[in-house]
Amino acid sequence: MAALEPGILNSTQQLAASRGVDLDALPEHVAIIMDGNGRWAKSRGLARLLGHREGYKTLRGVLLNASELGIRHLTVYAFSAENWRRPQDEVDGLMKLIERAARDELAVMHRNNVRVRVAGRMDEVPASLRQALLDGIETTRDNTGITFTLAVNYGGRAEIVDAIRRLVESGTPASEITEELVSRNLYNPDLPEPDLMIRTAGEMRWSNFLIWQAAYAELFVTPVAWPDFGLDQLVEAVATYQQRVRKFGGLA
Ligand code: IPE
Ligand code: IPE
Ligand code: MG
Given strand 196-199, what is the order of strands in its sheet? Predict the structure, then answer.
């Protein structure tokens, strides 16, 4: 779904190129904090869950756009380890929505060569949702297109704790614990670290998303609420990313 052949650009790539995006220097891994569904709904006098439903439609489009653009990995924050603090009806609605989305989108994702992953404590989500996610992973495991990682019941601190637990359980001596080894014990150790982290709806914080992996990610915050996010904003985020000078502590 990226370039059909070298030199032939699809319409998403043509649009991005026309807005100054260098298609040879795309961020390899884009992470998105999909925020603002509740505010989007409230500003229209709608129930919060309708905002989440609209957000699901947005995600469907953004996954396709990211894939067409040629981004290799997309990770999105669907439900945080802290979101259980919300009213029970919203939590239940979100669990059902994510499960339905996982089931309904599987065929089209598979057809589009998407490889599905999850990040988060799967043993704490409802069994039927866990099964839907595992089915997605299993069905698409050999796909070679974009890797799409859904963070569900995900917390960055919890992920680090889980990695440390694994290291302790395997009897790793303290002197052998390195950053590299911690990285290798995260939920998806084969994924590269995110280059670009996008947050919608204006909040200037991480909210515990990929706090280990995004240590050197470039941040892009847009005031646009997630249900209104689309190709224009994705292209703007990538173009902005390409203006940044990444130094990783060194000198440019
Ligand atoms: C993001 O939208 C989706 C989830 C956290 C599940 P919010 O529900 O946080 O929307 P706001 O921040 O209340 O507008
Ligand atoms: C982060 O958004 C979690 C998701 C987008 C799933 P929140 O809305 O939960 O973050 P806070 O509470 O504003 O920090
Ligand atoms: Mg929010």
Answer: 115-119, 147-154, 73-80, 29-33, 196-199, 218-221
Tens of pLDDT, residue by residue over 127-183, are: 999 999 999 999 999 999 999 999 999 999 999 999 999 999 999 999 999 999 999
> Angle at Cα 228 formed by Cα 47 and Cα 92, nearest 5°?
35
Q: 7 CB contacts (<8 Å, ≥6 apart)?
A: none
The amino acid sitting at 50 is L
**Dihedral angle over CA of 14, 17, 22, 26, nearest 10:** -50
Domains of the chain: 29-241 (3.40.1180.10)
pTM of the model: 0.97
252 CA to middle of ligand 1, Å? 37
**Total residues belonging to the chain:** 252
Residue list, ligand 1 pocket, CB within 6 Å: 34-39, 79, 83, 94, 201
Alpha carbon distance 37, 52 (integer Å): 5
